[in-house]
Amino acid sequence: MLSPQITEKIDYELTKYPAEQSQAAVMSALRIVQTERGWLSNESMSEVAQYLGMPEIAVMEVASFYNMYDLAPVGKYKISVCTNISCMLRNSDEIVDHLKHKLGVEFNQVSEDGKFCLKEGECMGACGGAPLMIINNHTMHEFLTPAKVDAILDELK
Amino acid sequence: MATPSAKAQAPVMTDLNGQTLVCLRTLTESQPAALATYIKLGGYQSLKRIVTEKTKATDIITEVKISGLRGRGGAGFPTGLKWSFMPRYFDGVKYLVCNTDEGEPGTFKDRDIIRYNPHQLIEGMTIAAYTLGARVGYNYIHGEIWQDYETFEAALMEAKAAGYLGENLFGTNFSFDLYAVHGYGAYICGEETALIESIEGKKGQPRFKPPFPASYGVFGRPTNVNNTESYASIPWIMQHGGAAFADLGVPNSGGSKLFSVSGHVEKPGNYEVKMGTPFVDLLAMAGGVWHGRKLKAVIPGGPSTAVVPASIMEATSMDYDSLSKARTSLGAGSMIVMDDSTCMVKTLHRLSYFFYEESCGQCTPCREGTGWVYRVLDRIVKGQGKMEDLDLLTDISKNISGRTICALGEAAATPVISFIKHFRAEFEYYIEHGKSMVESRAEQG
C-alpha cells in the first residue's frame, strides 16, 4: 500500500491537473514512489495504477519509456554518469574508469555490498559543468575529477 | 557549486562591452533568483501595466513581431507569428506550455534561466497567457536538473504569494495558474507534441502534425508552446519595446541570444551576446580553446546542426543567416567546441549511440536507421570497418531524413552526413588502419 507520505505528495501533484486527468500525475507518482522505495517493482506500479485510476499497462509504458525510472533494484545509491559529447570531450571516460575501478562494477551492475549501482546516462542538460554525474536522480555533481569523485563517495554512507 | 543559488560557476552575462542583456540580467545581483532582485530591476511592471490597462492582445502580438524574436528552442520560428495562430475565441480552457526540456547534448541555457532568473520566465509566461487567453500553464523541466526544478517551484510559490500568479491578478478578472512539471529522461520530449503527451502522463511519442498544438494541444485543447528563453525575452520586450530588442541584433535575427558553450574551452558556460556577434569573439569570451590548443571544429547549435570546420567557423557570426550561409544552423545556440586532439570518428560514434538510444521507436526509418548507423560506426571504431561503409552511412542517413513524424530523424542524420563530408579523410584512415588518425599522430609525438 502506498504510504501516507507518498499519497500526500501525489495529491499535491494532482492539484496541477484537471480532476478528470489524474493520469497526468503518473510521471510524478512514479518518481515519488521510486524515491521512497529505491526502485519500481510490478507491485509498486500496480499501486500507482490503482491510486490514479488508470490501467496498469499504461503505468508500465511510462515507467519503461523514461530512462530515469528503475525497474530493477539499483542499490542504495544509483550513480548516473553522463558520457555524451560535451562530457566526453572533457574526459568523462576517466571518471567512468575511476568509478568502475573504485566500486568494482561495470555499467548496470550493483556493487557486492548492495550500496552502489553505476549507470551510463544520456545528456543531462548541464554540459557547462562537464564532466558530471547524478546520484539517485536528485543530486547533481559537476566539474568532476577523480579526487572529487572520491570525496563525494566518502560522504555516501 | 551544485547548489541552485550558488554563483561560483555563474556564466558570463554581458556582451563584449560589459552591457547587461536580457535573459540573465539578474546575474549582476547577489541574489539573482530572488523576487526582490527581479522587482528591483523593474520586474513584473510590464505585466501589471498590461493587465491593469487592458492592453489589446493584438498590440502585444504586434510588438513581439516587431522585436524579431524567433523561437529559441532550435526551430527559429517567429514567436509573434506563432502567437497569432492561437484561436482568439474558444469555449473552454486554453493552455500555455514552456519547453525547458533541454536534452540535446551541449544545451544548458534554459537551466540558467530557471535557476538564476525564474521570475522573468514567470512574467513572460503570464504576459503570454494574458495575450493568448490561456488559463493554465505548465513549465516542463528536464528530469536530470532536479535542484533547478525545485528552485523554479519555489519561485512559483513566491510569485503566487506576491499576487503575480493565480486568481484575479491586480484586481482584474484575469487569472493564470502556472505549474512546474518534470520529465524523467527522454530527449524526445523536447519535441513539442511529445512533450504534450508527456504532460498528459503518456510515453513521449510525437503526434502527427497537423493538427498543431494551437488547435489540439494539452488535453486536446488549444495550446501555445514556446521555449524558455523565448518566454523570458518577453518582459524585456514589453519594457523596452520591440524595436529596442530588434536593435540588439542584426536583420532577421533580433535580440540577444544565450549561447551554451561546452567542450574544449577554458571557461565553459552560458554567454548572452547580441545576435550577430562574431564567432571568434564568443570563443574569446569562453576563454578560447583550452590548453592553448588549436580549434578543429565546432557544432554551433547542438548535434542536430551540422558540424563546421574551424576555418569556416572562424569567419562566421552567430546569427541565423550567417550560420545558414556556413551550411549549418543556430539551433538552440549549443556551441560544442572541439580542439585538434578530437577524433571525429569516435565523436560521431558517441553521437550516433545517443540518437539510437533516444529514438522513441515510433517511425521505422528512425528506429531502425539510427541503430543501423550506430552499428556501422561501432564496427569502424572496433577496426572492422569497410570503405563502402562511409557511403552506406550517408545513404542510411539520407533515408531517415524526411521520413519520420518528428525532426529527430533529421537530427540523427545531420551529424552523420556533415562529419563524413568535412572529415572524410579521418574516417578513411580509421577504416584503413583500424585506429584513430589523431590518436596515432599523438602517439608519434
Low-confidence spans of chain B: 1-13
Biggest sheet strand order of chain B reads: 6-5-11-8-9
Q: What's the tally of helices of chain A?
A: 7
* Total domain units of chain A: 2
- The CATH architecture term of the largest domain in chain A is 3-Layer(aba) Sandwich
* CA-based shape of chain A: elongated
Distance separating the two termini of chain A: 28 Å
How much helical structure, as a percent, in the residues of chain A? 40-55%
Kindly state the percentage of residues in helix of chain B: 40-55%
Shape call of chain B: globular
Beta-strand content estimate of chain B: 5-15%
What's the mean pLDDT score of chain A?
Answer: 97
Structural class label of chain B: alpha/beta
Give me the CATH superfamily of the largest domain in chain A.
Glutaredoxin
Gyration radius from CA atoms of chain A, angstroms: 17 Å
Radius of gyration of chain B: 22 Å
Order of helices and strands of chain A: HHHHEHHEEEH
Please summarize the sheet with the most strands of chain A.
Answer: 4 strands, mixed
Query: How is the CATH topology of the largest domain in chain A named?
Result: Glutaredoxin
Q: What structural class do helix, strand and pairing data of chain A support?
A: alpha+beta
Q: Which structural traits does this protein have?
A:
heterodimer, A: alpha+beta, Arc Repressor Mutant, subunit A, Glutaredoxin, 2 domains, four-stranded mixed β-sheet, 11% strand, B: 445 residues, alpha/beta, five-stranded mixed β-sheet, 19 helices, 11 strands, disordered N terminus
Describe what is shown at a glance.
With 157 residues, chain A is of the alpha+beta class. Chain A has helices at 4-14, 26-37, 42-52, 56-65, 85-89, 92-103, 146-155; strands at 77-82, 116-121, 133-135, 139-141. Chain A has 7 helices and 4 strands; from the N terminus they run H-H-H-H-E-H-H-E-E-E-H.
